[in-house]
Amino acid sequence: QVQLVESGGGLVQAGGSLRLSCVVSGRTLSMYNMGWFRQAPGKEREFVAAVNRNGVSTNYADSVKGRFTISRDNAKNTMYLQMSSMKPEDTAVYSCATARSSVYFPARIAGAYDYWGQGTQVTVSS
User: Fold this and answer.
1) Which of 64, 43, 60 lies closest to 51, judged by CA?
2) Are the C-beta atoms of residues 32 and 25 closer than 8 Å to each other?
């Protein structure tokens, strides 16, 4: 059974930093591209960042480019999202996901991903 568990969310002031982690079990992480998405209240889920199987290639939404960094440690079956210079508009539930095997990198739509975590709340105060 594939499971993804996020952690590291919380409350942070504008300009601050947080690091999210996503631990994957039941799947050999090195075989899959992965991504982070977020969903704010009353809004649709949106793409945040993606990383390819070996961690060499990354892709970001324009809204987070230069502020967020996605990475992974396949030996630990874990993916990360380092968030810096955070803004109130970054407030959302952040979820990690593994991409379908047939999908080319980068996959920026939710339908390209098959397994998802429950999400972790990130709140940025002004």
Assistant:
1) 60
2) no
User: Which backbone phi and psi does 65 adopt, to 5 degrees?
Assistant: -60, 130
How far is 85 from 3, CA to CA, in rounded Å? 30
Asked if residues 6 and 38 have their Cβ atoms less than 8 Å apart, the reply is: no
Q: Report the C-alpha gap between 65 and 30 in whole angstroms.
A: 24
> Mind listing the pLDDT tens digit for each residue in 46-99?
999 999 999 999 999 999 999 999 999 999 999 999 999 999 999 999 999 999
Q: How far is CA 88 from the centre of its chain?
A: 18
Residue 46 neighbours by CB under 8 Å, 6+ apart: 37, 38, 39, 61
Tokens describing residue 67: 């502020």
